[in-house]
Protein: Deoxyuridine 5'-triphosphate nucleotidohydrolase
Amino acid sequence: MRIPIINQSRHALPEYQTAHAAGMDVRANLPEPITLKPLQRALIPTGLFLEIPVGYEVQVRPRSGLAYKHGIGIVNSPGTIDADYRGELKVLLVNLSDQEFVVQDGERVAQLVVARHETVVWQPAQELSETQRGSGGYGSTGTV
Structure:
C-alpha cells in the first residue's frame, strides 16, 4: 500500500524497525526540547501530513520502550487519524512517571499502525439475539 505523505520535518519518514513489525516509529519535530513534568501532557508535532485512503485509519500508539523505561504514554491511546484529516500529525504524550522527561527533536515518540476499518449503518432493533454471556459486563467472565 502506498500512502501520500508530506515531510516538513528534518527527519526520515516513519519506518518499521524490524521485518515483521506492525508499527512504524514516528519522530518528534521540535525547534527545542520539551520537558514533560510528572502527569503533564503535551502535543508533540511531527512535521508529517498524510493522505490516508478511504476505508483506512492510522492508529497512533505508544512506544513500549518509552512506557517501560520512562512512563511516557499517549493520552488517547490509540489515537486515530481519519482519512479526511489533512493537518499535521501530532502525538499527545503524557508523563505518567514521578520524574521529568525531556522530549528531544528527532526522538521516536510513537508508532503508527495503518488499519482497515468498516463503516457501519445502525439497524434499529427491539431485541438482540441471545448468547451464553448475555448482558454480563465487567468481571463477569471470571476472576482473572
Summary: The helical segments are 64-70. Residues 5-116 form a domain with the Deoxyuridine 5'-Triphosphate Nucleotidohydrolase; Chain A fold (CATH 2.70.40.10).
